[in-house]
From TrEMBL:
InterPro entries: LOR, LOR_sf, Tubby-like_C. Belongs to the LOR family. It comes from the Bacteria. This is LURP-one-related family protein.
Length: 164
């Protein structure tokens, strides 16, 4: 499955659509402005909230929390020892599953893996549209909403780190 994401141009609080390769709107990332902490909602095309994403307030390292239906789904944070590339760890709420996200996050060139197996590739390389990147979900059994939420989190954390 291939999804196309147009980068936010005006920063936090903006909403943006994620489309499939036919141009059909699939997901809406709804940035919640005027909140104490960074908050997003991932909605389907009908406006139903699929996933809530928020920045954890009190954490030693910047952390984003992903919830589905009010229940924790995953926690995203930067790995401590990653010198050359951006590297993030996604800990799923089941307690044992971890996803690795690595690459050039700010350039929108990175991958999401589980136990060494590729789940999704995020890239601008094959697109001629400006300020757009593709999310190629490699595995058929992968959760597209979760992978989009992970991409939103790591990009947001990398941008916050660059600002700081």
């Amino acid at each position: 499955m291939r999804l196309l994401v147009r980068d936010r141009i005006l920063g936090i609080g903006d909403d943006y659509w994620i489309e499939d390769d036919r141009g059909t709107k699939v997901f809406l990332v709804d940035g919640k402005a005027m909140r104490l902490r960074d908050t997003f909602e991932l909605k389907d095309a009908e406006g139903r909230v699929l996933i809530d994403i928020r920045r954890k307030m009190f954490a030693l390292r910047d952390t984003m929390v992903i919830e589905r239906g009010g229940e924790p789904l995953a926690t995203v944070r930067r790995k401590r020892l990653s010198l050359l590339r951006n590297h993030y760890r996604v800990s799923l709420a089941d307690g044992g599953t971890e996803l690795d996200v690595s690459g050039r996050i700010l350039d929108r060139e990175f991958a999401v893996e589980y136990d060494g197996e590729l789940l999704a590739v995020i890239s601008r390389r094959m697109l001629s549209l400006r300020d757009t990147y593709g999310v190629d979900i490699v595995r058929d059994d992968a959760d597209p909403a979760l992978l989009i939420a992970v991409a939103v989190c790591v990009i947001h954390l990398a941008e916050k780190e660059r600002e700081g």
